[in-house]
Design a protein that fits this description.
It is a single chain. The protein has 12 helices and 23 strands. The protein has helices spanning 19-31, 45-57, 88-100, 119-128, 161-170, 187-199, 231-240, 263-270, 306-314, 335-345, 379-389, 411-422; strands spanning 2-3, 10-14, 35-39, 61-64, 67-71, 79-83, 104-108, 132-134, 141-143, 151-153, 177-180, 205-208, 211-214, 224-226, 246-250, 273-277, 280-284, 296-298, 319-323, 349-352, 356-360, 371-373, 396-398. The chain has a 4-stranded mixed sheet with strand order 2-15-17-16. With 423 residues, it is an alpha/beta fold.
């Protein structure tokens, strides 16, 4: 348990690297010819889980500070068992990548990951012709080495993660390849995958809507790559600074393809000031909640933005709507349900409808006993719950604070430092 704090977020912080960027870059570096250098590599649990995968595969790498050196195509096994930690991205890409690398493997996970359905993954494995065995729709999944076809028509997908794995795997093939029926859900993450692939020398072109083609000859080459800061982390801190906060956030790419950069659009609608000045994003909250405007926003392309938007909506004394929440059910928790539970626990009026979370801002009650915020072992729920506590007029305790290590290990330290400057 961790006691909730009160106060305003003021000061500067260097944001953690994006784990979405770091995982993609490190996986592609493993597939490239030569030795790649990845700067600002993340120290979050998901990124460290990938280094454990490298150990299991015999990949030559060195990790010092925030720099990772990877010797591409250096794996030494033909059979392995790999542990993804709680990384859904690794669980949904490795079963596609490993067979194309000539490796038969059992892909497993732990914690909340083993409770998350992998129906999308299994459907793609069948289409790709990758032999597999699984105990139902969940990890572990055993896959066998095989050659991939040059043309793939993907089945319908609720997530873009498996499709990212398909694109990365087919990027290893020297012949002309094409992928059809790419998912539109979370399409920004697919664009992020394609951008990082281009940096490593493999480019795709759009042949038709939902269809990509890679010409013959393009293969991954070793490069130097720097991971940009995490817009998901930024979005949460921005929401926490919406009233009375003043932040300077370092490390963000203003042109980033990370979908959660959409927080800037929401802030413009709501009235929270966000301006890039040189190498930093300057954030200035309003002085009074009445200055905030309600919003109606569809998170279909940026589902990880939901926790930050829930924090923001809780502060606005009018009804705001978060749409597209159906895809939140198969995250580390059922996020729409957990968010509504956490908000109501704080006395915020939150109602789940058909694909919509409606939030009437304002903390309507305090309690003589501390509120217990159950985050269901979900890192983003823990961060959202802790930031909600900044504005709650009573006392509270946060369950399972250690789960933030999945994406933002320094979260509580950074927030504590910002609170100290705001007092």
């Amino acid at each position: 348990m961790k006691r909730l704090q009160h106060g305003r977020l003021t000061g500067s912080v260097r944001l953690p690297p994006s784990k979405s960027v770091a995982l993609r870059a490190a996986l592609i570096a493993m597939l490239a010819e030569g030795k790649s250098t990845i700067c600002h590599y993340s120290d979050c649990a998901d990124a460290l889980a990938l280094l454990g995968v490298f150990d299991a595969l015999g990949v030559d790498y060195r990790h010092e500070g925030d720099t990772l050196w990877v010797q591409g195509r250096s794996w030494k096994v033909q059979e392995s068992r790999v542990e993804c930690g709680e990384s859904a991205f690794l669980a949904r890409t490795l079963p596609v990548l490993l067979p194309g690398m000539g490796i038969s493997a059992v892909v497993d996970g732990r914690g909340t990951l083993v409770q998350r359905s992998q129906t999308d993954l299994l459907a793609v494995l069948r289409v790709l012709g990758i032999p597999y065995q699984s105990g139902g729709d969940y990890l572990p999944v055993a896959v066998s080495a095989t050659d991939l076809d040059a043309r793939v028509v993907l089945p319908p997908q609720r997530t873009s993660q498996v499709a990212s794995g398909v694109l990365m795997a087919m990027g290893m093939m020297p012949k002309r390849v094409e992928v059809e029926n790419l998912p539109t859900s979370s399409g920004g993450y697919l664009q992020l995958t394609l951008q990082i692939m281009r940096h490593f020398g493999v480019s795709w072109r759009e042949d038709a809507p939902g269809k990509l083609l890679k010409p013959a000859g393009g293969l991954y080459r070793a490069v130097e790559f720097c991971c940009e800061a995490d817009w998901s982390a930024a979005a949460l801190l921005i929401a926490g600074a919406a009233i009375g906060g003043e932040l300077i956030l370092y490390g963000l790419n203003p042109e980033s393809l990370q979908p959660d950069r959409a927080i800037l659009e929401v802030c413009r609608r709501v009235g929270v000031g966000c301006v890039f000045n040189g190498t930093a994003l300057w954030v200035r909250g309003v002085e009074n909640a009445k200055e905030l405007r309600p919003f109606d926003y569809d998170i279909g392309g940026c589902p990880d933005l939901a926790p930050a938007l829930a924090v923001l909506a809780s502060l606005i004394p009018s009804e705001s709507c978060i749409r597209g929440i159906a895809q939140l059910a198969n995250k580390e928790s059922n996020r729409a349900q957990v968010l509504s539970e956490i908000l109501r626990n704080f006395g915020v009026d939150a109602a789940l409808g058909s694909g919509i979370l409606r939030i009437q801002g304002g903390f309507s009650r305090t309690s003589s006993t501390p509120v217990i915020v159950n985050v269901h072992a979900d890192h983003r729920m823990a961060m959202a719950g802790y930031l909600l506590g900044l504005f709650y007029p009573g006392e509270g305790l946060l369950s399972d604070p250690t789960c933030v290590a999945k994406s933002y290990p320094r979260f509580f330290d950074d927030v504590g430092a910002l609170l100290a400057k705001g007092r």
